[in-house]
Each structure stands twice: as structure tokens, then as C-alpha cells.
Amino acid sequence: MKRESGFTLLEVLLTITITAVMIGIIYGVLVATLQARTKLEHTAEIDEAGPVLLKLISDDIAAAFVPPVPEAPPPAEGEVAPENPSYFTGKDNSQGAGDADTLDFVSSRDVWDPANQRVADFSEVGYFLRTNPDDSSVQMLVRREDPYVDDKPATGGTLQEMYNRVKTFKLEYWDGEAWLNTWGDQEAQKKALPKIVKITLVIVPDAELAKKDPVAAEKKYIMEVAPVH
């Protein structure tokens, strides 16, 4: 007797089973690939964060500029002479478990002036750390920028959060003879720039690793830059 064309129930079930197994294998490979890609991107982000931050900070410092300030006329009798502003000021500060120095200066890098809709040739720039509200073990690096240069170069402007997992931000200044922890307090420094600025940046990019091994999670970067002006 001639068999009718078509599939038996057993053949259909077998086909479905084989298809399900193949889909499972393909899905497993896809998930593993996506996980590997995510891990690779995370690793790249961790490795690149420090150098990118150092590059930005060093580019700003390399363009540091002390504007020519005319000598103030002598004060009248009984009056106190006004204090000359410092256009490059570095303060030594410790906060929490690490250094949290501050730096304010005038930079000759072009910056967009939103009020006048033009590019400003000079700007006030500042860097400092502030508390990370989500993790008290690290801090947040903040950059200040102001396209209006005045006699108060450490105030005003807008703030931009650069990175939120900083452990240490330390700055040292070479005056030609010694490394100093501060700059701009002495009268002679108010009209001069340090010959070299050393930037030490310690970040903790991997929060999960930091919970298991805080020391191993730290990444330290050091760069020296010379202001060109």
C-alpha cells in the first residue's frame, strides 16, 4: 500500500526539538558575546578615564596666562592699598582620605561666550573636588569655566561635573628650585606662572571591585605640564 505524503507526528516533534536546541545554542553564544562586549567596553572605559581627564587638565594648564595688570596708584594717606589678585592660584587641601586640591587660573584657550554669542579669547578656569552624594568613599571632579576675566578669577562661571569617582587630586608647582604645594599666595607669584605643574590623579572607576579590594581598585596617574606663556 502506497504511503500518503506528509510528516508524521514523530517527525514534527523531532524537528521542533532540534530547532529548540539550535535556538538555545545560538542564544547562548549571543548572550556570551554581548557579555564579553560589555565587559570589554567597561574595561576600556576604566582604562581611558584617567588619561582623558589628565589630557583635559594639562591642556588647560598649558594655556595658562597671566594678563598684564597695570600697577595700581599708591593709596591716599590713611587708606589701605588694594591687594593684587592672583591669576594662577593653587590651594593645598585634604578632604576625606585623599588630597582635594583646588586650582584657579586664566587660560588662553578659546571658549564659547553664550551671552554675547561669540568665541572668547580668554577664560577663567578652575578645578576642584566636591562630595559624591552616591558614594562617600570617592569624590567628584568639577571644572569651572567663565568667559569673563575680572579681578576675581576664582569665582563665577558655570560648573561641569567631569568624573564622579576621584580619590585624590593633588597639584604641585615647580618654581625652578623646589616643588611647592601652593601657588599664588606670595606677591611675586601673583604675576608669574610656575615653570611646571605636576598633576596626581587617583580614581576608583570600578565600584564593584572597590567593595572587594579598595586598594586594587585604585588607578593612579601622574603628569607634568609646563605653562607655555
In short:
By secondary structure, the protein is of the alpha+beta class.
Molecular structure report:
With 229 residues, the chain is an alpha+beta fold. It has a domain at 55-66 and 82-225. Helix content is 28%, strand content 31%. It is built from 3 helices and 12 strands; from the N terminus they run H-E-E-E-E-E-E-E-E-E-E-E-H-H-E. The protein has helices spanning 9-62, 207-212, 214-217, and strands at 88-91, 94-95, 98-99, 102-107, 111-113, 118-120, 123-131, 139-146, 158-174, 179-180, 196-203, 219-225. Strands 1, 4, 7, 8, 9, 10, 11 and 12 form an 8-stranded antiparallel β-sheet that branches. A hairpin with a 7-residue loop joins strand 7 and strand 8 (139-146). The radius of gyration is 29 Å and the shape is elongated. Residues 40-44 have low confidence and may be disordered.
